[in-house]
């Protein structure tokens, strides 16, 4: 039977927590406070929490926890890149765990959320009960090239790629990540605005094979576009603040932690080969390839797989 999202639920508690260095992050909890603690990590970098992320989880089984990472969603300052690194986000996760007095939790993420989940697990393996990871991103040079250089995914979307590089001059088009950084560091507010929308639209257009493609006029949430563009660019120019192949080279630190890895065969943002490589190096991980899914977390096969995975993991953890 194909699963759909669980019914809508509202958080039973929301708050803003001060993590220092001028950053305040939005934190929410939902579901059953006596259930299995689960941390959901949103994508991006620069995405945000969504009411639909809560709906992957049975509210009777899970104590759901999620937060807007530094600079995005409802966290403040908005689109702030200062003191915004992978190491800082890992510290924020640990701060939240201690703040909520949670000993261990299931860690779940999508896209960039998988990167952060893996980095957190490598740093704090004793705190992780298990993983559910959708749309794996390992933050390697090959993945940056695939997304942003002219010999990667643009081969499938040459028209969309022209829109993506349209804010850049000819020299900047040779290295679009740096080119966008030059625009964001400049003083031309109109150019910044156009660049934010173009960056955000590029990923949106690549993300789904099930939903109709978007046009520039449909990028209505400028706050979301700004956070995604500026924070993603900041992270990717700095190689996500980790060494090349860091995750694979340190996967032994979480090799005994169970994981369900879910990946759409037609994911054009995060390539299936990265998920395949990850599971090859991770004895306790199981890969589920979705035959008719892209990158979006809310295509029908992905919803089905995520909801079933959370049920399976709940049963497994209850039986331990």
Structure description:
The structure is a single chain. The chain is α/β, with parallel strands linked by helices. α10 links the parallel β7 and β8 (285-290). An eight-stranded mixed beta sheet has the order 1-2-4-3-5-6-7-8, with helices on both faces. It has helices at residues 51-54, 86-99, 112-123, 141-148, 158-165, 176-185, 189-207, 222-237, 246-249, 272-280, 300-319, and strands at residues 13-20, 23-31, 36-41, 62-67, 105-110, 128-134, 259-264, 285-290.
CATH C-level of the largest domain: Alpha Beta
- Taken as a percent bin, the fraction of beta residues is 15-25%
- Count the beta strands: 8
Shape descriptor reads globular
* Residue-averaged pLDDT: 96
Cross-sheet strand order for the largest sheet? 1-2-4-3-5-6-7-8
Q: What topology does this entry show?
A:
Layout: E1 13-20, E2 23-31, E3 36-41, H1 51-54, E4 62-67, H2 86-99, E5 105-110, H3 112-123, E6 128-134, H4 141-148, H5 158-165, H6 176-185, H7 189-207, H8 222-237, H9 246-249, E7 259-264, H10 272-280, E8 285-290, H11 300-319
Parallel strand pairs: 3-4, 3-5, 5-6, 6-7, 7-8
Antiparallel strand pairs: 1-2, 2-4
Give a summary of the structure in a few sentences.
The protein has 320 residues and is an alpha/beta fold.
Features:
eight-stranded mixed sheet; alpha/beta; 2 domains; Rossmann fold; globular; 320 residues
């Amino acid at each position: 039977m194909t699963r759909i999202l669980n019914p809508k639920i509202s958080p039973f508690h929301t708050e803003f927590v001060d993590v220092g260095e001028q950053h305040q992050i939005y934190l929410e909890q939902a579901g059953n406070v006596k259930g299995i603690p689960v941390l959901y990590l949103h994508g991006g970098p620069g995405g945000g929490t969504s009411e639909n992320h809560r709906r992957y989880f049975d509210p009777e089984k899970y104590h759901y926890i999620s937060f807007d990472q530094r600079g995005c969603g409802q966290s403040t300052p908005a689109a702030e890149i200062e003191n915004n690194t992978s190491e800082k986000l890992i510290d924020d996760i640990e701060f939240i765990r201690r703040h909520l007095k949670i000993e261990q939790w299931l860690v779940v993420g999508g896209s960039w959320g998988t990167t952060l989940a893996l980095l957190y697990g490598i740093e704090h393996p004793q705190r992780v009960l298990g993983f559910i990871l959708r749309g794996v991103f390992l933050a390697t040079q090959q993945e940056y090239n695939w997304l942003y250089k002219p010999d990667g995914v643009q081969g499938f979307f040459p028209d969309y790629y022209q829109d993506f590089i349209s804010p850049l001059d000819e020299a900047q088009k040779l290295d679009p990540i740096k080119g966008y950084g030059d625009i964001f560091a400049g003083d031309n507010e109109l150019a910044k605005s156009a660049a934010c929308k173009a960056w955000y639209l590029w990923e949106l257009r690549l993300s789904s094979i099930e939903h109709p493609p978007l046009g520039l006029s449909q990028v209505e949430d400028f706050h979301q576009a700004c956070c995604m563009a500026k924070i993603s660019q900041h992270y990717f120019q700095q190689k996500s603040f980790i060494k090349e192949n860091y995750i694979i080279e340190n996967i032994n630190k979480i090799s005994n932690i169970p994981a369900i890895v879910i990946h759409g065969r037609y994911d054009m943002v995060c390539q299936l080969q990265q998920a395949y490589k990850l599971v090859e190096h991770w004895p306790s991980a199981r890969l589920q390839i979705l035959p008719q899914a892209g990158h979006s977390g809310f295509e029908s096969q992905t919803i089905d797989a995520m909801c079933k995975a959370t049920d399976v993991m709940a049963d497994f953890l209850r039986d331990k």
